Amino acid sequence: ADEEGQWSAALVDEYNDAGMVFALTQTNSADGTSGFSDCMIIENEPPKAAEVAFSGEMMMGGELSGSYNFVDANGDFDEGTVVIWERADSADAESWTVAGAGGTYTLTAPNDSHKWISFSVTPSDGLDEGIEYISEPRQVANSAPEIVAFEDRTASEGATFAFEMTAFDSD
Question: Is the pLDDT of residue 13 over 80?
Fold first, then answer.
């Protein structure tokens, strides 16, 4: 308050495109009349994502889980945030989206074999969308082939030796 009267603010529109709209009114303390009235807009800040990361076993069949912290300067809720998984041929190559992914992802062969995987978050508060935040890429490990069948034979000197072996490589 000042010598001229009391200031009051009333929330007019919480969810318009520009941000929150308040009506400001100054009332004269002597006779109660309004001497000044105006609107003030508090701009909505786009939200941010912090600590974007993922965990899980980086082998074929491994299940990965993405995580992030939603940060909004206006105190808005996480509403409409887009999370996706991305795959690339190398750590610094351009990546592409893994279709249909959400907060978890299961590594499958041959699509993910020897690829680099990252988790991406584009935060939204329902009013504005922030920029995309991407985790550090991690490489899917190469699993060693496994010998599943081997025919045991004895070789003699000077003879042709033949044998059969069956191996499985999950990636």
Answer: no
Task: Tell me the residue ranges of DSSP E strands in the chain.
Answer: 6-13, 19-27, 34-43, 48-56, 63-71, 82-88, 96-97, 104-106, 116-122, 133-134, 138-139, 146-150, 165-168
Q: How far is 76 from 79, CA to CA, in rounded Å?
A: 8
Pick from 40, 34, 43: which is nearest to 22 by CA? 40
Q: Long-range contact list for 16-22, CB < 8 A, 24+ apart?
A: 17/127, 18/43, 18/44, 19/43, 19/44, 19/74, 19/127, 20/44, 20/74
Which residue in the block uniquely carries the two structure tokens 């959400």? Answer: 102
Q: What tokens appear for 100 in the block?
A: 């249909």
Report for 4-13, 23-32, 45-54: range of highest mean pLDDT: 45-54
Taken in order 44, 46, 51, 54, the sign of the CA dihedral is: positive
Q: What is the pLDDT of residue 49?
A: 97
